[in-house]
Specification:
Blueprint: E1 14-20, H1 32-47, E2 52-56, H2 59-72, E3 79-83, H3 91-94, E4 97-100, E5 106-112, H4 115-118, H5 128-134, E6 143-149, E7 156-157, E8 162-166, H6 181-192, E9 196-200, E10 218-222, E11 225-229, H7 239-251, E12 261-265, E13 271-272, E14 278-279, E15 287-289, E16 292-297, H8 302-313, E17 318-323, H9 325-328, E18 338-342
Parallel strand pairs: 1-2, 2-3, 5-6, 8-9, 11-12, 16-17
Antiparallel strand pairs: 1-18, 4-5, 7-8, 10-11, 13-14, 15-16
Helix pairs in contact: 1-2
């Protein structure tokens, strides 16, 4: 354990949300207009509450993004643009993970990203944090690197030293060959200040390329509460795996050896792509920002149930819904495309790309 470091919870004060904007050379090409419209709507929603740092592939792209955001009505004073070539747009997994050190000073930890164990090319994405740092995108916040492959969507923090994760998303020979569980825990103690590990062995939803990222399955809502994805249909292909995860969650204990308060989220009806393959739609992939929670919805009857549950979990925040059907067609949702930057990590920005 590193007593001088703490991985804050997502509900703590933030300085910005980081997004990596889609472009024609990413997997979004076939529905680029539709997904850019969604990104513009998302940026407009977030900028009503806090700054947004947007990664553009080059200065020409930045100009196009700025024009689109102006049309959408985004709060331009809260939008900052940085330049970095990208393979794709999953900022949760290629963005920096920020810890707080002594006197709550933020520190960027730049873990490696290898496209979820080499499934997809990620050489450009793996350099985004470094490139933004060199441009001054994070103000005077320092950066350190780690040899560990760690995606932000693979971990959940309660802000008090507890980490929740599905073990196979870190203990994986395609991500971290030769690393044992003990090695990985040692690195997470040192880099993120983790003191209490909650490892799950079960949990998956169909169509997920990440091998079971926790942000699609179970989320801390406060230090004592975990909401999670539940399948209520025994005939559902995901039912058995999610039921096994539910039993594991029931067995978890906090550092004081108390069980967690568990709140199930419904599952939407299966969404299929053009080839009939199941898409990984779910409600656990919400994004917490200052004063609000952004909840993905899919035009499903369960949308209203999920919204009501999340409203009770976060009674002091506005609940904003966004149709994420375009995102789920590429295997992710709201949380997957965004990375929160805790207070102090983006407060003094030295870049403003021109287009």
């Amino acid at each position: 354990m590193n007593p001088k470091r703490r991985l804050p919870a997502e509900w703590e004060p933030q300085s910005a949300i980081m997004l990596t904007w889609p472009h024609a050379d990413s997997d979004w090409a076939v529905q680029l207009e539709r997904v850019e419209t969604l990104y513009a709507e998302l940026t407009t929603l977030i900028s009503g509450y806090q700054p947004v740092l947007i990664v553009c592939r080059d200065t020409e792209h930045a100009g196009q993004v700025r024009a689109r955001l102006a049309t959408a009505g985004a709060h331009s004073v809260r939008v900052r643009l940085g330049i970095a070539p990208s393979n794709d747009t999953w900022a949760r997994d290629h963005g920096p993970i920020t810890v707080l050190t002594e006197h709550d000073r933020p520190l960027l930890v730049d873990f490696r990203f290898n496209g979820w164990g080499g499934k997809f090319r990620a050489d450009r994405d793996n350099q985004i944090t470094r490139r933004l740092f060199e441009q001054g995108a994070f103000g005077d916040c320092p950066r350190e690197t780690s040899a560990l492959v760690l995606e932000g969507g693979a971990i959940e923090s309660d802000g008090q030293g507890t980490l929740l994760a599905v073990s196979r998303t870190l203990i994986d020979p395609l991500r971290n060959p030769g690393w044992t569980r003990a090695d990985i825990e040692r690195a997470l103690r040192a880099r993120l200040g983790i003191r209490h590990f909650l490892w799950l062995e079960h949990g998956a939803i169909s169509g997920d390329d990440t091998d079971g990222h926790i942000d699609t399955l179970a989320r801390f809502c406060d230090a004592r509460t975990i909401c999670y994805t539940r399948s209520e249909d025994p005939r559902d292909a995901d039912h058995a795996e999610l039921a096994a995860m539910e039993r594991e969650l029931m067995a978890l204990r906090d550092p004081a050896r108390r069980p967690y308060r568990l709140v199930p989220l419904p599952a939407p009806k299966p969404l299929l792509d053009e080839d009939g393959r199941r898409l990984p739609a779910g409600y656990a992939n919400f994004l917490i920002i200052n004063g609000a929670v952004l909840l993905p919805v899919y035009g499903d009857p369960a949308d209203a149930r999920a919204s009501a549950i999340v409203r009770k979990l976060f009674p002091e925040r506005a609940i904003l819904t966004l149709d994420c059907t375009p995102l789920i067609r590429q295997g992710g949702s709201l949380h997957c495309i965004s990375m929160h930057l805790p207070a102090g990590a983006n407060d003094t920005v030295g870049i403003q790309a021109r287009g």
